[in-house]
Amino acid sequence: MAKRNEKLFSAIKQLKEIFQQMLGKRAAVFLDYDGTLTPIVSRPEDAVLDPKMRQTLKELTANYFVAVISGRDLPDVQNLVGLDDIFYAGSHGFDIAGPQGRRVAHQSGQEFLPALDRAEATLRARLGNNLPGVQIERKKFSIAVHYRRADAGRVGEVEQVVDQVQAESSRLRKTGGKKIFELQPDLDWHKGKALLWLLDRLGLEGPEVLPFYLGDDVTDEDAFRVLEGRGIGIAVQETPAPTAARYRLRDPKEVQKFLKALLIFAKESQSE
């Protein structure tokens, strides 16, 4: 569970403090997608990246290492972001790829694919059209059950079915998030482990690198925790809530404002 950080500061108001930590270091910027780069929407397929945010990310890659770590399938998040020069980790870090010319590939959980196939078939058979508003989304290494559009009074039924399917497969674990239940391989692997793997694989694990992670959901807490004492965690929250992050941004608009501030810092540092 996320712990409550009693000193959760606005990243916008504390830019001076953050810039002070960046002096003499290389920054590596890791970002969640849904709820961080784009607002949360009713249907996951409708979470389209604003062209202005894409341009900001493009400019960011010219100055910093940038990676997107998402719960979405790897090809899905690659297509949505649409930038070739950054790194991507899909399925909460189970599926990682780098840009052409800097080939980095990692997959964890291949042996769990048959169990996921069986669980998906069972979920579709048991939920199907029985619970309107429920959307089952199969990703390579997980199955998401979205209930944002379902009757609030029937969410318990949805969870009961997910719990039953998980209980029938000792190889899968259940996780959650904003209006979503998810089944994943029962491995000690998550967004935080993916972040550390990328830092190590790319030679960015030393004290001269300052990693950032920006995310809005429960699964992002794993990344915040691995950065405690070695990096900067920024929770994207409209209202302050328990988190292992030190700083907060209210929404994707503030995320873009913060990223633009990082760009200004980079340009000013280069001119000195």
Return the domain count.
2
Strand neighbour order, sheet with most strands: 1-13-12-11-2-3-4-5-6
Based on the structure given, which CATH architecture of the largest domain is correct? 3-Layer(aba) Sandwich
CATH class of the largest domain: Alpha Beta
Radius of gyration, rounded?
19 Å
CATH topology value of the largest domain: Rossmann fold
Treating each run of at least 4 consecutive H or I residues as one helix, how many helices? 8
Protein architecture, described:
The protein is of the alpha/beta class. The chain folds into two domains: 177 residues, HAD superfamily/HAD-like (Rossmann fold, 3-Layer(aba) Sandwich); 76 residues, Trehalose-6-phosphate phosphatase related protein, domain 2 (Alpha-Beta Plaits, 2-Layer Sandwich). Helix content is 34%, strand content 22%. A nine-stranded mixed β-sheet has the order 1-13-12-11-2-3-4-5-6, with helices on both faces. A four-stranded antiparallel β-sheet has the order 7-8-10-9, with helices on one face. A hairpin with a 4-residue loop joins β4 and β5. α2 runs parallel beside α8. The longest helix is centred in the C-terminal third of the chain and has 20 residues.
